[in-house]
Design a protein that fits this description.
heterodimer; A: 469 residues; alpha+beta; Uridine Diphospho-n-acetylenolpyruvylglucosamine Reductase, domain 2; Uridine Diphospho-n-acetylenolpyruvylglucosamine Reductase, domain 3; Alpha-Beta Plaits; 4 domains; 32% helix; globular; B: 275 residues; 2 domains; five-stranded antiparallel β-sheet; four-stranded antiparallel β-sheet; 10 helices; 27% helix
Chain lengths: 469, 275
């Protein structure tokens, strides 16, 4: 309840806003360890209905939060106390596909993998491919500027979005594209974590499916050797379409679960994929083989069929599911470091986990320097969450000291909001707040995320009581 | 009326003082976009030049924004790398005017290749956005906002750019056959396709054998040098026409970043962005 009003008393939203406990519990969560306590949730099916919801929230002084599939890991979709959740899962139509221009207009609730599945009949795909792509939405990808293994060569979501139809926090609707403004409002909106308004239609760029693909799995006797091989591949001038690393614990967990043929005797393995025209793929693959063998590879295999390739990627992208075989809970981190610092930072991550008596596994986008240490634990053990959070903070600190950044693809949300001062000056944050204020002067759209308190933030409502920040 | 400040290309802290002490400022690189025209007024402020760090193995270069593209290319070519920006003016100017080159004509590569910017704001303070890594979603993306901002949000003084290896082979071809458009559309991701006066030009890049095979797939095409292309270097070629709600948001951004209408106000006037 905000300002003495409840949704039940609001005649115009009666029947539109759901307030039953089970639904509110569901939309109060995302894939992070935090929970929120919204007052209602609605499921618009059109841009106009989104506008109605935003206008109603605005008129009644209620914060609102757009929600996709809730797969975010940084608490960006955790609703503030008493807010209205605008779930976009029913806006899930692909409005049109322009095969000649290789573009499509889609609604925000379209699932990432569904878009590429649908466009495969035209030999096209949407490049960003987060591990959650079977369930995450394009709207969520826009909010987080999501990545994925194949963003190494193709770039993250921002590189694949041409235009956005947006319902602003004022309730008005407009289009951001390259024609109707001098400033790149489209670019500024992407990655704004739902704090600049709600994208209700998205024009995406589609890429031709590559005619040739080579997917290699390479084993190493140490994480250090694998990390050094990553640097050697990139510095040789080869930009693979994907360059992923998995350490021994996660490789074993995944192999037991998926049976992808991963090297169980290796301390670390790389998945290296090269795609494109025939000769660049064959030449690049040969070069990669030479480089990794020089770097001390202990095994080298190449997928011999699309089925084998799909199994390798299934192993990589379902790695988090495999963790449940080891510990009931996990905390997935996301930082980026310069590639040359990978080996050093990975070694520090292991030390940090040891010091906090936590198990750690690593499965990450090595080619981008994008680390994903996974801390595993049983949250029923007294005091374990304190150790998990201390270790997480230390991993962030070590990554920043190595010249890295807070997040490569999960975003800041609530999780890293109070770490922003570790990376940015007060003035940096003030200018980020200025941008936010230009889109949302009243701080009504997904308030209290990204920017730490005291950075000029004037957002309404309070932070979720369950959050640990 | 433009006033040449005595310390053109001076250090960042001197520029900060000049910014803070000026009522009106004209931000300019080598003026290849004609920003310093007869309508411009205020103190001319220009970013310093020079490479801060270049790490070929990381495919990344950090520069003072007054560095010329020509000088940057000399440094990059030594490591067989490049940035996809036409060899005109400075890197700061290219970013401020969103001067996409070659592949960027189609794919807007420039915004995606600027990894970090350090900016002197209208009040003389410094703010930064982005990082010295190739992937980053830490906070709101001021870098995207700065690319194409025509000096209306601050003076870009330092930048970090992504670089890329120079491909093994590169070949321009052209054709005025009616089937040319469809033919190039069927190629696998050519580096550039552009149409100039009913002539279709295509740039093929990559492995030498692939370029040769793709070339042989094209009927009625002749090889050629890079066609004379006009990159948007003049103020008249600024992006789009701001109107409606996007214009309101742009004005609000301007009000937040430059409340006293100090920066490049002749451009702000032209774009109806005075607040």
């Amino acid at each position: 309840m905000i300002f003495g009003l409840t949704f039940e008393y609001s005649k115009e939203m009666s029947g539109v806003v759901h307030t039953n406990t089970a639904e509110l519990f569901l939309v109060g969560q995302d894939a992070s360890n935090m929970t929120g306590n919204p007052a209602g949730v609605c499921y618009p099916t059109t841009t106009e209905e989104v506008q109605d919801a935003v206008r109603w929230a605005r008129a009644n002084g209620v914060a609102f939060i757009a929600r996709g599939a809730g797969t975010g890991l940084a608490g960006g979709a955790i609703p503030t106390e008493g807010s209205l959740v605008i779930s976009l899962t029913k806006m899930n139509r692909i409005r049109n596909i322009d095969i000649h221009r290789r573009t499509a207009w889609v609604e925000p609730g379209v699932l990432n993998a569904d878009l590429s599945r649908h466009t495969s009949q035209f030999g096209l795909h949407f490049a960003p491919d987060p591990s959650s792509q079977q369930s995450c939405t394009i709207g969520g990808n826009v909010a987080n500027n999501s990545g994925g293994p194949h963003c190494l060569s193709e770039g993250v979501t921002s590189a694949h979005i041409l235009s956005l139809e947006v319902v602003l926090p004022s309730g008005e609707v407009c289009v951001f594209d390259s024609e109707n403004s001098l400033f790149d409002l489209r670019g500024a909106f992407i990655g704004s974590e739902g704090m600049f308004g709600i994208a209700t239609a998205i024009e995406v760029r589609l890429l031709q499916n590559p005619p040739h693909v080579s997917t290699m799995v390479v084993g190493f006797s140490s994480v250090h050797a694998g990390a050094m091989a990553v640097s050697s591949i990139i510095s040789s001038g080869i930009i693979p379409s994907a360059l992923e690393m998995m350490d021994a614990p996660i490789t074993r967990a995944v192999e037991e679960y998926v049976h992808a043929g991963f090297p169980l005797d290796a301390a670390a393995m790389l998945i290296v994929e090269i795609d494109g025209l025939e000769h660049s793929v064959s030449h690049g693959s040969r070069e990669v083989k030479e480089i990794v063998m020089r770097s001390g590879a202990t095994s080298f295999t190449v997928a011999q069929s699309p089925v084998e390739r799909a199994l390798i990627w299934k192993g990589r992208k379902t790695a988090f599911g495999a963790i449940a075989r080891i510990q009931p809970n996990y905390y997935l981190h996301d930082t980026v470091v310069p590639r040359k610092k990978l080996a050093e930072v990975l070694s520090r991550v292991t030390q940090i986990a040891d010091e906090e008596r936590l198990q750690v596994m690593n499965v990450f986008h090595a080619g981008d320097g994008n680390l994903h240490p996974i801390l595993m634990f049983d949250k029923r053990i007294d005091g374990v969450m304190d150790r998990v959070h201390r270790a997480g903070a230390e991993i962030v600190r070590v990554s920043l000291e190595a010249g890295g950044v807070l997040s490569g693809e999960h975003g800041i949300g609530l999780e890293k909001r109070d770490f922003m001062r570790w990376m940015f000056s007060e003035n940096d944050l003030m200018f980020q707040q200025k941008l936010r204020s230009a889109f949302d002067p009243d701080g009504i759209s997904n308030p209290h995320k990204v920017l730490p308190r005291g950075s000029g933030c004037a957002d309404i409502a309070s932070i979720p009581p369950g959050s640990w920040v | 009326m433009l006033k040449q400040t005595p310390n053109l290309g001076s250090s960042v802290d001197v520029l900060q003082q000049q910014m803070a002490g000026s009522d009106a400022v004209c931000i300019v690189g080598q003026n290849s976009s004609g920003v310093a025209d007869s309508y411009a007024d205020g103190n001319v402020l220009q970013a310093p030049a020079g490479i801060i760090s270049y790490e070929p193995d990381e495919l990344m270069i950090s520069l003072y924004a007054g560095s010329t593209i020509a000088d940057i290319n000399v440094a990059l070519q030594a490591a067989h790398q490049r940035i996809l920006i036409p060899e005109i003016g400075t890197i700061g100017g290219a970013i401020a005017t969103r001067r996409n080159g070659l592949r960027g004509i189609q794919h807007q590569t420039l915004p995606n290749n600027v990894l970090r910017c350090s900016v002197i704001a209208a009040d003389g303070s410094i703010f930064q956005s982005g990082g010295q890594v190739v992937k980053n979603v830490s906070g709101f993306d001021l870098v995207k906002l700065l690319v194409g901002s025509w000096g209306l949000l601050g003076l870009i003084v330092e930048v970090t750019m992504r670089t890329e290896p120079i491909p093994q082979a590169s070949q321009w071809l052209y054709s005025s056959e009616p089937s040319a458009v469809e033919q190039v559309n069927n190629l696998y991701r050519p580096a550039v396709v552009t149409h100039i006066s009913d002539v279709t030009y295509v740039l093929l890049e990559g492995n030498e054998l692939d370029v040769r095979e793709e070339t042989s797939r094209l009927n009625g095409f002749e090889t050629c040098d890079m066609p004379l292309m006009t990159f948007p270097t003049a103020m008249t070629q600024m992006a789009g026409v701001s109107q409606g709600l996007p214009l309101s948001i742009e004005k609000e951004i301007r009000k937040q970043f430059d409340p006293s209408n100090k920066l490049n106000r002749h451009i702000a006037t032209q774009r109806n962005l005075l607040t």
